[in-house]
Amino acid sequence: MFKDAVIRLVFSALGVIFGVCGFFVLFVGYGNHDVGFWSILSGALAAVCFHLHWVKAKDSLDTWHTTLTLRNINVVGFLGAVAGITAAICNLANF
């Protein structure tokens, strides 16, 4: 694997770990359900990112995904980004 692929895999794995750990600490430990939900959502999107980097680094992207599934993953990522930006703006407006 290339050096940049390893770096991307490490960062996306850290995103999965922090997302899942943040969920348990915030949702279960502190009872902050809103932040816990966003944390597990972030971890899930990081897991999708990890998967895509993994199959791309192994040169097996075409065996795992078709053009339609990649388009659907693109839409899910875009909607996640829009939802995150919208939540951040709403959170800043509530101060």
Automatic annotation (TrEMBL):
One Gene Ontology term of the molecular function aspect: heme binding
Keywords carried by this UniProt record: Endosome, Lysosome, Membrane, Transmembrane, Transmembrane helix, Transport
Keyword Metal-binding: no
GO CC annotation: endosome membrane; lysosomal membrane; plasma membrane
Key word ATP-binding present: no
Classification via InterPro entries: HRG (IPR026218)
Transmembrane parts of this sequence: 6-28, 35-55, 75-93
Topology in the lipid bilayer: Multi-pass membrane protein
Subcellular locations according to the entry: Endosome membrane; Lysosome membrane
PANTHER family documented for this protein: HEME TRANSPORTER HRG1
Family of the protein in this entry: Belongs to the HRG family.
Name assigned to this protein: Uncharacterized protein LOC107271578 isoform X2
Organism from which the protein derives: Cephus cinctus (Wheat stem sawfly)
Source organism phylogeny: Eukaryota, Metazoa, Ecdysozoa, Arthropoda, Hexapoda
Gene that this sequence comes from: LOC107271578
